[in-house]
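haha ok so turns out i had the wrong file open the whole time. this is the CORRECT one, sorry everyone. sequence first:
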Amino acid sequence: MQILNALPTTIARRITCMYQNRTPFLQILRISNIPNWYFERVVFPSDRFLFEVMPEAQLEVYSADSSGPLYRLPCQELKVESSLLGSP
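then structure:
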């Protein structure tokens, strides 16, 4: 799996999360509450996005046509158990 904007290897505490865009519109995902790290991705309708973050990260979800976030989610709520990913 390729992870873009991966967390620095010095960060030991990390979780794997998944977000699915369940709308018919493009969405922009952003994490901006982690110091010295910036994360932003575009997610197409119906796409699922797997990403790695620190447990205290918050995902901001924007619509492609809005200036402010539609909502914010604690990444802990999006956590995927490693057994579901096929890891040993």
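The beta strands are 15-20, 27-31, 39-43, 48-53, 58-63, 71-74.
again sry for the mixup
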